[in-house]
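Appendix B, Record 12. Input sequence as logged:
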Amino acid sequence: MTGLTTRFLVIAVLFVTCLIVSNITAVKLIDVAGFIIPGAIVIFPISYIIGDVLTEVYGFAKARTVIWLGFGANLFAVATFALVGVLPAAGFWDGGEAYEAILGATPRILAASFAAYLIGEFANSYILARLKVAMEGRHLWVRTIGSSVVGQTLDSVVFISIAFGGVFPNKVLVSLVLTQIVFKLGYEIFATPVTYAVVNWLKKTEGMDHFDRTTRFNPLSFNRSSD
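Logged structural output:
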């Protein structure tokens, strides 16, 4: 396939890949200048940047499709990890604990991850689409950063609250949320020149600059008339 379809599929694949890889790498906690953050911080913010590109160029409806594709792919990956985890291991294989530590996850963590992902990504895409119409397509940096402030904040608050609420003191939960938000938004701001370059290139090569003036923003709608 060529043209729009090829480029759109490449971006969609990158989005899904970032999501799945970030969920696997999240199990490692890293120390950055005394701040403890999950390893997913290396790549997860890229999914928001890609989400910005999708909404800005192709519109909310197509971004919604990719968000649900990412959800489905992640659900499939998690189900596969769980199935393989319960299958009987070879007698000489001693990697069971390591496998469970890296690829296993409690129902609470999974629920937190899925809820945070859907709420954060849809909020990011919705706000960006609305701001684009309100600003008549101007000030892309305001729209990408502004939508990410809301999306990334909701993502962090929902995940930390569901995953660790009642486990850690509220002071620790607030600290975890704020640390994640600062690092994620810093990533977004740092990558803004790249976002501009990709968006401008896609608009030029695709001949497309979608405005969601008549879009139905129901995240559960897949009716093409809502495009």
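The beta strands are 29-32, 35-38.
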